[in-house]
Amino acid sequence: MKRVAIFGMLLSLLFSLVLAQGYLPAQARAFEGKAPAGVNPLPPSAPSLADATATPTARPSYERPLINMTSSTYDPSKAYVGGKFVLTTIFKNSGQKTAYNIVLTFTSNDLQSQGNGGVQVIPTLDPDQDATMVQTFLIKSSMSTYQTSVGVALEYKDADGKSYTQTFSSAVSVYWLTLNTSTPTITPSPTATPYIRPQVVVTSYLTDVEALRPGATFNLVLRLENLGVFAARNVSVTIGSSSSGGTTTTSTNFLPVGSSNVRVIGNLDPKQVMELKQTFVVNSSTSPGVYPVTLDFTYRDPNNTAYSEQQIISLLVYLIPSIDVSFYTEVAAQSVGKKSSLPLQIVNLGSSSVLLGQVDVSAENATLANNSLFVGTLDAGSNFTMDVDFTPLKAGDLPIKIKVSYMDNFKNPQSITKSLTVNASGTAAGTPGATGGTQGTPQPGSTPGAGTSGQTAAATGETWLQVVLRVVRGLIGFDSAPEFNPATLFRTGTQGQGQGQSQTTRTP
User: Fold this and answer.
1) pLDDT grade, residue 406 (50/70/90)?
2) With contact defined as beta carbons under 8 Å apart, do 197 and 300 qualify?
3) Where do the domains of the chain lie, and which CATH numbers do they carry?
4) What is the pTM of this model?
């Protein structure tokens, strides 16, 4: 089969050569240019082998103006945040027609065009002609990246009025400045330093109420400082929304009192500090918890660049039980040295139940018993009573302190201390009387004392020898009571005035 195929190919090649040289018989030439019957002729456009010659491809030609940006340069030492630099660009007409009314527009998010708004015009640009454009930019103080770009948009026309548009981009590397001295001498540094711009920051804040609770009125004091190197102009702050537990509400938990929540501060120079005070009231429906409060600041730098920032502080609302401590019944008269009972009660004045811990009662110049108890859950409007054993040791008004412990909503132990006052009268038993007398044998018109232990020889009419003999008799078991002397009943003198005391004056 291979031999047959090769033989067929040789015959076909031989026949083609014969046709090319015109070696055909007359009969065959009679059909030249004609198709035999039943055979479709070749289309007129079909080329023959004799017509197949190589044709060179023509190079396309731009029949229009075509502008390219061939160069873009700037001085890197001038490209720092807050500074100005010059961008130099070169444009060339690479087309074969003249470009007319070329409008160039320079744009950038981080750069601000100076002098012309970023729009420049080239009247005409012939083929192979170039033009150099110079544009000044200010690097905005709000820039926070090391690199930005400048976009250039071109619009132009050809001689027939047909419009064309093109866009280009040029990269610009930016750096920050650091202050190496106490004077405002700016030195370039490759290391970025924050706040090379005006930067108003809340460095601290406080409230004049130690623990905020629903319904409390308080003053919020904000300490503001400009930490940037440029002045902040027309500073204002809006003390806005607050939220808790992921649910945000606008100005419903802390409501301003006396003025609105928008405050105008004015200008803040670099490193300048000021305090801002605003009065608020905690909404009575606010639940205990942590509430973020937003502070929205707006201001401008010396180049009139606007800044809008939001900062957040947190205010804590505490669970403070509303309780009252008092006597649930009238307190009986208190006497020095005599034990009595203090009828104490704790009442929950709040609208919800509270969990109270230990109750401790203390007092100075008194002895207490049963003065410590655990309360537990106390429902709204209910009370807890306790009776404390109380023995005064001193006459007068005695303060009683009642300390109630509880756990706040932040799991921290807290306490509430209340104070009550009771009055005690009288003196302690065995207290010496006035000068010149002691408790002893009752005298006419006097109050009986504690016994005969305070009798003296002068009071009984005995001599010192008789007293010694009575002591000896008592030691050996005999009766040692003094003998009754009627003469002592008729001695003249002045009786004492204190309870259980007498005062005598002997006459010669």
Assistant:
1) very high
2) no
3) 67-173 (2.60.40.10), 200-317 (2.60.40.10), 323-425 (2.60.40.10), 457-489 (no CATH)
4) 0.46
